Amino acid sequence: MIMKIKRLDFRAFRNNEHFQCQTEFKTLVEEFNPTTLKLNPLFSDNYLPLYVAEDEALVKIIKNSFTDERGDADRQRDQTFRGLVDTVNAGLNHFDAEVKEAARKLKIVFDAFGNVAQLPQNEETSAIYNLEQELTDKHADNIAKLGIAPWLNKLKADNQAYEALVTGGYEEEATKTELKAKTTRTEIDKVVRQIIERVEALIVIEGETAYAEFVRRLNLQFDKYANTLAQRQGAAKAKREKEKEPEGDEPIGSGAIPPKQY
């Protein structure tokens, strides 16, 4: 049987995993010498520039200032929202009956909107805007009695600051970087497949002797990453199945057939 190189679904890798796999692949080819393996100019002219491009794109993703700034702005508005909710809840115990009633009415609004800080970031922006509009348009008296206008103004300002980051060009730059990384990954995967096919063709033509150890080592590398993917996919499947399970046991006398005990 002719020696074969195992295949990997590189598309399933996370960015860091993909680059690490490429780094190990590159190191192995260089250890066995691409010229000796007869992989040049495919390796030197096609693969290496793409490897450098992927490295640069990954560094930009990791150091993306927009991600950090957006995260800070999101945490700030979350903190303000929680402070506002705590202030309303504290008003429920106020000694003044009018203040206490104002807090009760406002809590009804907050309960209707729920914990907006737990929403996805873009949804949270809309939810905070709608909450602020609802409160200022329909509950001005209660806001004044409870004295939460400064909190509400701060929440509005924090939400606008977050939105300004998203619409200020940072999001577009981050999206371009992600797209470039995705495109580069697709291109480098194609070259890797070409290299694999070339090695296998050379084995058919020249025999296994010059390539046996290289293929053995490469297959070990690919096995390691294949196992990583399999474990993650298995964990994801188990999680999905668990989420589908009904909560609690069937009540006694429900007519359900109990599971067989082993």
What does this structure look like?
The protein is an all-alpha fold. The chain has a domain at about 65-170. About 75% of the residues lie in helices and about 0% in strands. The protein contains 8 helices and no strands. α4 (about 95-115) packs across α6 (about 140-145). The radius of gyration is 29 Å and the shape is elongated. Residues about 250-260 have low confidence and may be disordered.
Helix content: over 70%
What general outline do the C-alpha atoms trace? elongated
With helices defined by DSSP (H or I, 4 residues minimum), what is the helix count? 8
How confident is the prediction overall: mean pLDDT? 87
Largest sheet: none
Distance between the termini: 45 Å
Could you state the oligomeric state of the chains shown? single chain
- Please mark out the parts with pLDDT under 50 across 5 or more consecutive residues, or reply none: 249-262
Task: Offer a concise description of the structure.
The protein has 262 residues and is mainly α. It is built from 8 helices and no strands.
List the helices and strands and how they pair.
Elements: H1 15-32, H2 42-62, H3 65-91, H4 97-113, H5 121-138, H6 140-146, H7 149-206, H8 212-244
Helix pairs in contact: 1-2, 1-8, 2-7, 3-4, 3-7, 4-5, 4-6, 5-7
Highlighted features:
262 residues, mainly alpha, 0% strand, disordered C terminus
